[in-house]
Every structure is written in structure tokens, then in C-alpha cells.
Amino acid sequence: MNTARRTLIKGAAVLGALSAASTAVIAQPFLFSPTTELMPKGKKRRVVVLGGGWGGLTTARHLREAAPDLEVVLLEKNPIFWSCPLSNKWLVDVVDTSFLVHSYTEAARRFGYTYVQTEITDIDRDKKRVHTAQGFVDYDWLVVSAGIRVSYEPWFGNDRQAIAYTHTHFSSAYVPSAEHLALKQKIKSFKGGTIVMTLPPPPHRCPPSPYERACLMANYFQRNKIPAKIVILDPKPRIAPIGGGYRLAFDDLYDDIITHVPNAAVKELDPFNKVVKTAAGDFKFDDAIFMGHHQAADLVWKMGAIGKTSDGKPTMWADVHPEFYNMKNDPQVFVIGDSVGSVSPQFGHYPKSGHVANRMGRSVAQYIAQQSKGQPMKPEIIDNLCYMLVNTEPLEAISVKFDYKMGPEGHLLQTLTDDNDRRQALWQEDLRWYGTKIQDLVGS
Ligand SMILES: Cc1cc2nc3c(=O)[nH]c(=O)nc-3n(C[C@H](O)[C@H](O)[C@H](O)COP(=O)(O)OP(=O)(O)OC[C@H]3O[C@@H](n4cnc5c(N)ncnc54)[C@H](O)[C@@H]3O)c2cc1C
Fold it and tell me: What is the CATH number that goes with domain 34-147+297-382?
């Protein structure tokens, strides 16, 4: 008998003895259960961060520095961090996968917090408890940075077949997931014809990025001599932000490929017969990217943090303090990133960007540190900055900057500056911006 076989039999004998002795006590010794405590609390007060995206990673890292006395636990369902920023460039091979993908375990080791890969299933704010597929975790402070959900219900109601079909064949790759791989394969294998791309009604994740995607796809088809047409169905009356820069790129570089259709809100979609009816007319397509409506992540709905309009309807987004991002009736519970609802009567929502989620994460780490020391929270003003690549030969980008200040009437004011002049220097700035942010999120 060889050694491996002997070891196996020995192991089986031990397991057999174990189970005979303790079946009643431990029926499944190595399996987690949603109803048991995943991580019993020690003496330290604990912050639980939900979602390891742009906001969550930033919060976890900065909390360790700002409040070393607190235990920090990051819960995330994905095994690796996948960045949406720069993903449009990755779709057409301007950057490789190593730009987008980073290790959660390395970041957790580097900064000294606990990362658990698990699906979060519910939040019980009365018990200060987060439920996961592997058990529950109790918290003293909670930070939710769970991103968005993409909803096709406004088009299909409860027609699950149409929703599943659209998601399978025409998904948008707007959340960190395998959809990006599917879209890349779609672009690479496209042989020609018309691709329609719908934009979600505002507010939605990264407003300038669908136009960037259209430019880079057009650029790819042009370089590879694929007879493609891209029709952008935009519910807005004009391209925004960076409308001037995009208009020039569409007209100068991709006139024979891109058609931008304004005021084209989707009224009806037949994904099986490939027809979309919009307020600006009906369009047949060979392939498509359908960006469903964006709403706050499921977890924000489950925790009861969705705001209400004056007539009692859900706003679809989290109702939190505009500078501290905590819940008015639960000040140790924070929601940050794309899920945050309107923060100002002047401009409504912050742009739903990685830059903003990162800035909010840094601020919330300070606010929790201040709360933990019994100090008043000192409000921080954030900003936003986005670079969008519109050409690859040469590599040229345009950009938009958002500045904020507190107005005399006590609400936030926004100034938006488009840089429409496409040039290589902005692409270099984009790479520097991204490198600094990734360093802040994962430390490498
Ligand atoms: C194509 C594209 C290009 C973009 N370009 C830019 C750019 O150039 N600059 C910029 O600033 N922004 C850009 N963005 C926007 C940016 O990606 C988002 O604004 C940012 O990721 C928001 O951060 P977040 O923390 O709110 O959400 P996310 O980064 O999406 O993180 C949410 C995390 O929560 C996890 N999660 C959610 N629910 C659960 C659950 N139930 N259990 C466990 N885990 C859960 C998710 O897996 C995810 O990891 C772009 C987005 C797209 C799609």
C-alpha cells in the first residue's frame, strides 16, 4: 500500500471515530451556517464594512489608521477586487487585466483588517447585526458601500424570462462581475451590423462612461475594419457631461460609426425579436448593450435606508446626511458611494463615481474615529474628477471636474468644469489618477 493511500485510510478512520463520538454536537463540523455567529465579538468595538468596492476598501484602510483601537471587518461576495474605472479601456486592450484586478487578502494583510468573502443577505439594525451566507456578524458601527443594482423591471415588470434573456444576451457590465468578460468577448467576436446602447435615466453610475465606451468600441471596430454602427439611445436631451468633447470625438473620429439619439427614453423592449421602441423612434439591432435603470444596492433597500418622495414613493436611493452620510435616526450607520441619494437642492446627487466613493470612504473613516473618541464630527468637503479616453491612436482623453462648497443657505453648491480639448496629456493624468487611487484602496 502506498503512503498516500495509507494516509487516506488513516484520515477516514479518525473522521469515523470523531463522528461517532460527536454527531449530536457537531453534525457538520466544517460547514458554516447562516444562523450561527460567524465572528464572535471580542473586547474591541467593531466596524463592519459591507462591500469591498471603491468606497468599502477605502473606508476599511483608513479606519485602521484613524481608529487603530477599533476592529474592522470587511465583507464582500467577490473573491477578487475588479475595478470598473479603466474597464472600458480594458475592453479594447488599452490596459491589461492586471490594472483592474487586485487581491482582497493582500489588502487586508497590508492594512490589518479582516476580510471575509461572503454574500451579505440581510441587515438587522435593531440588533446591530449583519446576516451573511456563512453566519451573522455584530457591529457597533456599520458602513454600507454596496454600489448599485441594475433594474430591468421598469421595462419588463415581472416578466422574469425577458429579464433573464436581456441580462444574459445584452448585459451592460456596469457592476464588478463576469459581465465585463462577456462584453469583451462580444466586442471581439462582432462581425458587423448595428449595436444599440441605451443609457439609464439619470442619476446613474459614472455618467460620462457610456459615451467613452461607445468611442472605444467604435475605435476598435475602425482599427479592425469591422463594418459596425453604434446607436446611442440617450434619454437626456443632450450629451452630458463633457458634451462638447464627446460631440467633437463623434463627429471628427467616428462620424461613420456612432449615431447619438437624444430624448430616446426606452418605452418598450423586445429582446427576443431585437427591437427597441423609444420616445425618439423604433430601432432594430443585431446586438445591444442595455443599461437598465440604476438604483441603490439591494442591501440599502433591505436595511430600510431608501428615501421617500413628498408623496411617499421610494426615491430609489439612500436617504443620508449630505456631509456625514449617516442615517438621521441611526447615526452609527453610514451609507456611502453610488447608493447615496440627493444631497443638495441645487444639483441633486453627487456624481456616482469611484473618485467620490473614495473621498466619502476617507471622510467616513474620520467621522467614525471622531465618534469613537466622543468628539464632534468635522464635516469634510469632497470633489470629483473623471477622465474619459476617446481615441487610441494617439491616446487622447477629455475630462470633467466637479467642485463643491457649502452655500450661504446651508446647502451644498456644485461647480462643473468640462475639459473638451482631447489630448494625450489628459490620458497621462488619468493613469496617474488611477495609480494614486488604487494605491489608496489596496496599497499596491
Ligand atoms: C464602465 C465604467 C467606467 C467607470 N469609470 C470611472 C472613472 O473613470 N472614474 C471614476 O471615478 N468612476 C468610474 N466609474 C464608477 C465607479 O466604478 C463607481 O462609482 C464606484 O465603483 C462606486 O463605488 P461603490 O463602493 O459605491 O460601489 P462598488 O465599487 O460597485 O462596490 C460595491 C461592492 O459591494 C459588493 N456587494 C454588493 N452587494 C453585496 C452583497 N449582498 N454581499 C456581498 N458583497 C456585496 C459588490 O460585490 C462590490 O464589490 C466607472 C464605472 C463603470 C461601470
Answer: 3.50.50.60
